[in-house]
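Notes taken during the Thursday session

The instructor put the following on the board and asked us to keep it in front of us for the whole hour. The protein is JmjC domain-containing protein. We were told not to look anything up and to reason only from what is written here. First, the residues (476 in total):
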Amino acid sequence: MAATTSIKPFSPEESRRILDHLQQPAVFLNMTCSWPVLNWTAEHLSGCLGDKLVRFRLGRKEETNTPLFETQCSYEEAKVAQFLSWTQGQFGADVGPFSKYSHSEYWAYADYKYIAMLFHDQPSMFEDVKWSEFGFEGRNGRESTLWIGTEGANTPCHLDSYGCNLVLQVQGRKRWHLFPPEDTAKLYPTRVPYEESSVFSQVDVRHPDLRRFPAFQGARAHVVTLQPGQVLYVPRHWWHYVESVDPLTVSINSWIELEMDDMARISEAVAKTVVFAIKSARSDDNSDKWLNPTEEGKASHDENMQYVNLAVRACAQRQQTQNPRDTCPVKRDSSGQIKKNRDCVRNRAPFSVPFGPHLIAVCSQQELSLTQKHLDVSSSRNCTAGSDAESRSTSESIVKPHDGKHECSSGLTQSGPCDCAGGTSEHSSEDYKEFKHTTITTNDLLGCLVHPDIVTRVTKLLLERHMGSHRNTMPL
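Then, after some discussion, the predicted structure tokens were revealed:
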């Protein structure tokens, strides 16, 4: 019998080029089979962390048709060993603070845990994660976060403002519901709770209230269940809701910060200033928790206005000095050397993303289902190079349409309306015209003020005013 080989389907350079050109979510297979981090099961991590306390977020499993934001969850610090005893229902075992929660009614999640902080006294563990094999030289576990959860543990649907994500599934399975940036209006974006790097959806995408959010019917859900050893790429500004579907799940997330354009930087500063100013005001309906637990404290109004002014000035200066014929502005690194603009390179050098048995596009209207045959993790934990014929048959069996009506070919995204997540199309438009008087709350007002369209318009007005052209501004 021929010995198995450890050949990766893509080199670091090829992987990075693929990521630079991917415009939709995709799953990489057979890229991580030699990574030691695949041994990081919850049981293994319990032994590594010992008596170290980890903060867990807990939420009820009940269906409410509304997102369960982090501000509405309970939080407990416990050992991973106590967490495991609780999940396994060990009678008489030490479960620490989990004793207050019924495992049948609650899920628990140790999320956003920076590996650099968890294992600061065991830095050798950073090398177990090898993001350098995706073309990010020197990147490992130090720049990653750890996520440990029970079945039902989830993060509310949101988009990340600044960057993209690479996610490695280590133990158990997680189901990802992804929506393209063009569907933002159909996801009803909100900035409360506030988190600078994220915008949340007001819709519970699994059990949507279509009377309150009728436009969600037109959202295009891209669903994939990520298996151990697989890596999911989530492009910037793609909405995502994530839920654990197995009793125990462990995953590693590398958030790759991307440079924001000047207009986006101003918009972020404007939204932050408005939210902090209004939510800091005292009123009867303004006492809710609005600052996400992952956010670092409150900034004063003066500090926020400084950020607005700095962002506007930087944008104005760049526009004044940029040659109008330059479609790609020059950017320099910290040493003053001109940096290559990947967007410009992308436009000048045509590139076809090599979708196939090792790179699978996540399409809409169907759940991406990868069989045991496609998993990275095998008993030998080695990659094997199959024949071309086997690869073709493998690729053809990967994507399974929900209803048999839609096919995903060449990695192209389907664009039909979303018929998943408990939503139905049985309701006629008349059902949503029922008028019901309700009191407008502070959060209602704030949601309108920081709506993306409004913030974008305010951003343009501020820039025009700063550059002296506000007299020519067209009325809203």
